[in-house]
Amino acid sequence: MWDSGQHRKRRQDEKLEMNKVWLAILLAFTAILPFISSSYMMHIAVMTGVAIIVAHGLNILMGFTGQVSLGHAAFVAVGAYTSAILTSKAGVSFWLALPLSGVAAAVLGLIVAGPSLRLKKLYLAIATLGYAFIVNEVLVYWESLTNGTAGIVVPQVSFFGYALDTGHKYYYLVYTLVILLSFIAYNLSQSKLGRALMAVRDSEEAAQSLGIGLVKYKVLAFVISAFYAGIAGSLYAHFITVIAPTSFTVMLSIEYVFMLVVGGMGHVWGAVLGAILVTLLPEGIRLFIRFLPGWLDIADLQQFVYGLIVIVFLIFEPDGLYARWLKIKAYLERFPLSPRKQKGERVWRRWR
Amino acid sequence: MTEDVNTMDFLRIEQLTMKFDGLIAVSNLDIEVRQGEIHAIIGPNGAGKTTVFNCINKFYKPSGGRIGFKGRDITPLPPHKVAELGIARTFQNLEIFPAMTALENILTGAHRNMNTSILCSLLLGKRAAEERKAKQKALDMLAFLGIASAEEKIASGLPYGFRKLLEMARALLSEPSLLLMDEPAAGLHEREKSEIAKIIKDIREDLGITVLLVEHDMNLVMDIADRITVLDSGVVLATGYPDQIANDEKVIAAYLGTEEQ
User: Fold this and answer.
1) What residue in A sits closest to B59 (Cα-Cα)?
2) Shortest CB distance from B128 goes to which of A184, A191, A348?
3) Chain A CB contacts of B88 below 8 Å
4) Of the partner residues A193, A198, A206, the one whose CB lies closest to the CB of residue B118
5) pLDDT tens, A204-258?
6) Which residues of chain B make contact with A203, given a CB cutoff of 8 A?
7) What is the pLDDT of residues B57-113, one digit of tens each?
8) Is B241 exposed, middle or buried (0-12, 13-18, 19+ CB in 10 A)?
9) Which of A244, A235, A263, A251 is nearest to A322 (CA)?
10) Contact call for B79 and A208, based on CB within 8 A
11) Interface test with B, best of A210, A265, A333 (most B CBs within 10 A)
12) Contact A168, A39 (CB under 8 A)
């Protein structure tokens, strides 16, 4: 075969080198973004960071393990409220409340995972929707703890006496965690744990026949996923500084699922790209509408345009942005040659 | 039965019965598999061959009887515990992980031998020492089976023969002491069949793994099996060495029909 081991090894090494370059560019961009951004842009950037963390978590549960969740906003809510209550009512430091909000959400994940073990696909989706409603009801009616629909005012964060009171400052806190949690999600995808989760997704029977216990790994997926959402919830709460049950609706849960679909389910980079696109999309539409001539007034049609883009996306890019990126990269790598894929090569793993 | 735990007992199936509601799939089955042999289970369609496999690795909970492995009663264990004891299997209708790459598929086989903790998985990922070791083994296995070029390819896109080998490689990487193979030659043409026969022999000779297989192809079975158990309608018709089975009147009748009819 022309494709000798040595040759392949060298090609892989070259690819790894290129990946490192791309990563360095991305990190540099992340580091300098605040210096070239308005506070409005920083606000969006922070919200994007929060979304990336939730998307990573949901991706671990849905993309890797194949367990549908339509109630992920509930885990975010639990994280946000835990942090809010601990800091505003119990006087706990944010730096302790942050991990604790992850843990609180993870505990809910553990509780939710139990009944979910028997459910699959659509049934699981409906059950998770149910959990989300229950959590929302609890937030509304447990007024002594949550202030009900009035919501909670959350104190701002300070770092050794230095107040992180603007988007520019808070940005670095959020993106430190985004990078850390992305790194962990990436490690997971390439480890024994990640393969066990994917095995559960792809064939429960084969997974069991290799010593992978379904209960253990499904529960683990729920717990890790909820932990990510809890951390994101805490970051959200201390940035927005007022949270109420209406901040965590079913629409938000569905938006998280949409991030994975748009980005590329089951891929760490897919979660990142999807979170960025879905958070930026409404802003982009707003910006676009502002530049339209006055007589073409479609400001009221924002939701309509949003929905339209969603549908167009699903039709023309069902594998997500990450797949498109891989295709573009493959094209560039073989540029003078045919842009079509080599025989038998599948650039993309389609999630079912 | 006296509870004499004999280390010579490798796999001992005693009085195994499996009922699905009213239907009796297998009844009062006795099969003994000796360490180091290639043991074949044959029989017509619906004889209960795959049911026996599913009872051994606990996809089915037997309605009655006992299954002992290395002197230990494995009847009450869940499937993944049975796998942890060193019983691996392949499937009649290939159960590879379609969305994973060939390498990831095989690496998943190493699951039971890896001590990587969850924390280690999250913090180190593929840089963990065990991870590198397992990857090297997996790559060697791919090379051994002659499908090294498939390493990074998604399993669902591979040709049938590749996927069949992939599933086998995955089971082997778990370093089992007993390998259950459900119709390893199904869907292969003659040349591939003789290759599979050679691989199965190698698995026993070189890796020292005991093989229990279900197979329809009589030529293959006669070629590689040390002993054969014949099932018909859920009961054991005969057990013995290949030449005994080939000349057994009951077996011939079951396969070819009796001459009077």
Assistant:
1) A205
2) A191
3) 209-210
4) A193
5) 999 999 999 999 999 999 999 999 999 999 999 999 999 999 999 999 999 999 9
6) 95-98
7) 999 999 999 999 998 999 999 999 999 999 999 999 899 999 999 999 999 999 999
8) exposed
9) A263
10) yes
11) A210
12) yes
DSSP B18-59: EEETTEEEEEEEEEEE-TT-EEEEE-STTSSHHHHHHHHTTS
Encode burial over B20-45: b for 16+ CB neighbours within 10 A, e otherwise.
eeeebbbbebebebeeeebbbbbbee
Rounded CA-CA distance B52/B70 in Å is 18
User: Tokens 């549960």 label which residue?
Assistant: A61
B174·A211 Cβ contact <8 A: yes
Cβ contact, residue pair B118, A220, below 8 Å: yes
- CA angle, corner B66, sides to B62 and B67, nearest 5? 95
ipTM: 0.89
Strand partners, B101: B154
Q: Record the tokens describing residue A295, joined without a space.
A: 């007589």
Is A344 within 8 Å of B153 when comparing Cβ atoms? yes
Q: Which of A157, A205, A94 is nearest to B167 (CA)?
A: A205
Which positions in chain A have a beta carbon within 8 angstroms of at least one beta carbon in chain B? 1, 3, 5, 8, 184, 186-196, 198-199, 201-203, 205-214, 220, 266, 344-346, 348-352
State the residue for tokens 């962990």: A184
Evaluated on CA atoms A55, A56, A60, A64, the torsion sign reads positive
Residue A190's nearest CA partner among B101, B175, B80, B95 is: B101
| Strand-pair category, A242-243 with B87-89 | unpaired
Output the six-digit token pair for A225. Answer: 């996923």
* Whole-Å CA distances, A320 to A145, A234, A271: 41, 28, 10
